[in-house]
């Protein structure tokens, strides 16, 4: 499994900062240039639209999208994995340390955090756990 994560040839890197009603999303291209940040509502239609958008940015290849997320379960994760997108779990303490790469200001900023983690998924995804769905049980 470890080799599988390292062999991913990703074109789109994304971070989803989950919240209760809406999620902050930051997307970078393969040069780690920000494509867009947006807020996505937490409902089935919006999550499907998010997956569609990410796949379209990757030229229709879901396997070339890598998403970082702090909460490694729930509707967001399930929607992305079911569509073939690689999801990586990021510990909040890792975010704290990664933020120092980009700024020494200690203030929490959702937009900056989204960029920092999307960038980390692009450069350091081997440090994060590749999330997989549990097999269906009968």
The whole-number mean of residue pLDDT values reads 84
Q: Give start-end ranges of low-pLDDT stretches.
A: 1-6
How many β-strand stretches?
A: 6
Element string (H = helix, E = strand): HEEEHEHEHHE
Whole-number radius of gyration?
14 Å
- Major sheet summary line: 6 strands, mixed
**Percent of residues in beta strands?**
15-25%
Oligomer: single chain
In spatial order, strands of the major sheet run 3-2-1-4-5-6
Distance N to C terminus: 25 Å
The percent of residues in helical segments reads 25-40%
Shape field: globular
Work out the helix count.
5
How does the helix and strand content classify structurally?
Answer: alpha/beta
Record keyword descriptors for this entry.
138 residues, 25% strand, disordered N terminus, 6 strands, six-stranded mixed beta sheet, alpha/beta, globular, 5 helices
Report on the structure:
- With 138 residues, the protein is α/β, with parallel strands linked by helices.
- The protein has helices at 2-7, 44-57, 75-82, 92-99, 110-124, and strands spanning 12-17, 22-29, 34-41, 65-69, 86-89, 129-131.
- The chain has a six-stranded mixed sheet with strand order 3-2-1-4-5-6, sandwiched between helices.
- The relative contact order is 0.21.
């Amino acid at each position: 499994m470890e080799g599988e994560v390292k062999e991913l040839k990703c074109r789109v890197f994304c971070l989803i900062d989950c919240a209760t009603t809406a999620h902050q999303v930051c997307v970078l291209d393969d040069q780690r240039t920000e494509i867009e940040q947006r807020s996505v509502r937490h409902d089935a239609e919006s999550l499907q639209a998010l997956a569609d958008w990410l796949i379209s940015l990757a030229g229709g290849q879901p396997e070339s999208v890598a998403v970082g997320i702090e909460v490694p379960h729930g509707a967001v994760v399930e929607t992305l994995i079911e569509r073939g997108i690689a999801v990586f779990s990021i510990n909040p303490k890792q975010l704290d340390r990664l933020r120092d790469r980009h700024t020494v200001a200690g203030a929490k900023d959702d937009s900056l955090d989204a960029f920092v983690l999307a960038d980390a998924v692009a450069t350091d995804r081997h440090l994060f756990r590749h999330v997989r769905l549990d097999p269906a049980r009968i």
